[in-house]
């Protein structure tokens, strides 16, 4: 029996990967414009990193991690997200001693043992950015602008930026208590997971999707009401920067993120077109995380966006991406004797930087032409027969439908000239 791919994972075939490359190139281009440089961290880390980084009361740590013991008896985990790893790499590689801020981006697979559904996978891909060392609200606004710019350049419409502040260790304890006091009279009516969160992480109750729980949240105190002066000033400044560049946002006082490390700004970009898993991007500030992971106290802010959800969104809005790169020349061998010369010419064209295709299946000339159709090459080179004996080949311009005899000695430079190579 055929072994199938694991549930919640995908195979991306060539017709998909050319789209992924287009989107990844766009992201790299935008990162360059915004001064973000790429970091690549291991796919697995010591489990301890995520317990400390993501937080042990989160769904990710409690239910969703791919954790196993390696042959050396160490507990390791496939990364469920990349912020904790980026922080570890920042601390371990002493990046704080470089000129600050440190602005990093990453693209790669993440792993969460979730219930697979449209837009939710067990292996999925994130693009994300992390900015270390900048406490200013301009850094928050800059990463939001970067995300917005990306969706805008892809031509996506109907995006909704939701913004909130979850406060800081100064103002959050009082808010937490106010929220618990508000909810306590109805505690026994809340769903199981909300009751569980009540002591450990009551803020998460705010984004419970259960309509029953929602009903008991009406009139609940908001994080914004409870912000200390510094947090309020920071939040207002982020809003002003976004206003200055014309990025619309909705203040959503119920927005709390599913990871424990956030302080101050929390944001998500939503797109209702793609169904229930509408969050295409999420992030915020995490001023305590670097210290938590063993570094000096350092502010940080970042986001990650789900790549699969970008492709869902493009499909649902009917946006086509440019097709993959074309083949420049197809080289056909008229007969078996021409094989070596056509192989040599194909290689020579490739050495000059052209995309050249040839048959490697021993096909007849007729079958080679049929095969060549799939490449839609601009030129076809026909090698063999009397021409070959004369030291020449036939060169066919496919668009013009014209064919000419060219000396083998000249043909590569002639084709290169047509492609300005
Ligand atoms: P997150 O909200 O858990 O944040 O994930 C960010 C994005 O990844 C989501 O908005 C969604 O688009 C995508 N995503 C998450 N889980 C899945 C899944 N199972 N299948 C498909 N897509 C998914 C983080 O991961 C934080 N590290 C973001 C961050 C960076 N905060 C600060 N810096």
Automatic annotation (TrEMBL):
Gene3D superfamilies: Anticodon-binding domain, Bira Bifunctional Protein, Domain 2. GO terms for molecular function: ATP binding; catalytic activity, acting on a protein; histidine-tRNA ligase activity; transferase activity. It is found in: Cytoplasm. It comes from the Bacteria. The keyword Nucleotide-binding applies. Keywords: Aminoacyl-tRNA synthetase, ATP-binding, Cytoplasm, Ligase, Nucleotide-binding, Protein biosynthesis. CDD domains: HisRS-like_core, HisRS_anticodon. L-histidine binds at residues 81-83, 112, 126, 130, 257, 261-262. It catalyses: tRNA(His) + L-histidine + ATP = L-histidyl-tRNA(His) + AMP + diphosphate + H(+). GO terms for cellular component: cytoplasm. The keyword Cytoplasm applies. Its EC number is 6.1.1.21. Pfam families: HGTP_anticodon, tRNA-synt_His. Residues 23-322 form the Aminoacyl-transfer RNA synthetases class-II family profile domain. One of its GO terms (biological process) is histidyl-tRNA aminoacylation. Its main location: cytoplasm. PANTHER family: HISTIDINE--TRNA LIGASE, MITOCHONDRIAL-RELATED, HISTIDYL-TRNA SYNTHETASE. HAMAP family: His_tRNA_synth. Homodimer. Belongs to the class-II aminoacyl-tRNA synthetase family. This is Histidine--tRNA ligase. It comes from Candidatus Avidehalobacter gallistercoris.
């Amino acid at each position: 029996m055929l072994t199938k791919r694991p549930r919640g994972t995908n195979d991306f075939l060539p017709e998909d990967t050319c789209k992924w490359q287009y989107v990844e190139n766009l992201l790299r281009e935008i990162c360059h414009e915004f001064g973000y440089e790429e970091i690549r961290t291991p796919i697995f880390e010591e489990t301890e990193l995520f317990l400390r980084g993501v937080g042990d009361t989160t769904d990710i740590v409690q239910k969703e991690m791919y954790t196993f013991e390696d042959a050396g008896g160490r507990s390791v985990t496939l990364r469920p997200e990349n912020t904790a790893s980026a922080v570890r790499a920042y601390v371990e590689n002493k990046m704080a001693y470089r000129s600050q801020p440190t602005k990093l981006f990453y693209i790669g697979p993440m792993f969460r043992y979730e219930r697979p559904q449209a837009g939710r996978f067990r292996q999925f891909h994130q693009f994300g950015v992390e900015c270390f060392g900048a406490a200013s609200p301009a850094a928050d606004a800059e990463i939001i602008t970067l995300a917005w710019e990306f969706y805008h350049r892809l031509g996506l419409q109907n995006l909704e930026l939701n913004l909130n502040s979850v406060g800081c260790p100064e103002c959050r304890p009082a808010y937490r208590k106010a929220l618990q006091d508000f909810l306590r009279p109805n505690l026994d009516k809340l769903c199981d997971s909300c009751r569980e969160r009540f002591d450990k992480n009551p803020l998460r109750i705010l984004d419970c999707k259960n309509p029953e729980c929602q009903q008991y949240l009406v009139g609940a105190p908001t994080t914004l009401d409870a912000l200390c002066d510094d947090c309020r000033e920071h939040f207002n400044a982020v809003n002003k920067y976004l206003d200055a560049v014309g990025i619309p946002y909705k203040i959503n006082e119920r927005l709390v993120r599913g990871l424990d490390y956030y302080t101050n700004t929390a944001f998500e970009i939503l797109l209702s077109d793609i169904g229930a898993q509408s969050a295409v991007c999420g992030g915020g500030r995490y001023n305590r995380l670097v210290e938590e992971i063993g570094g000096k106290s350092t502010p940080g802010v970042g986001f990650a966006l789900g790549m699969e959800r970008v492709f869902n969104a493009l499909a649902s809005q009917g946006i086509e991406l440019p097709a993959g790169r074309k083949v420049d020349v197809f080289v056909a061998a008229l007969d078996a004797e021409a094989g070596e010369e056509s192989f040599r010419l194909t290689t020579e064209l490739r050495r000059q930087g052209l995309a050249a295709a040839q048959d490697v299946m021993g096909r007849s000339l007729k079958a080679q032409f049929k095969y060549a159709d799939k490449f839609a090459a601009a030129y076809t080179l026909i090698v063999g027969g009397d021409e070959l004996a004369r030291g020449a080949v036939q060169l066919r311009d496919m668009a013009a439908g014209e064919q000419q005899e060219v000396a083998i000695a000249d043909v590569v430079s002639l084709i290169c000239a047509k492609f300005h190579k």
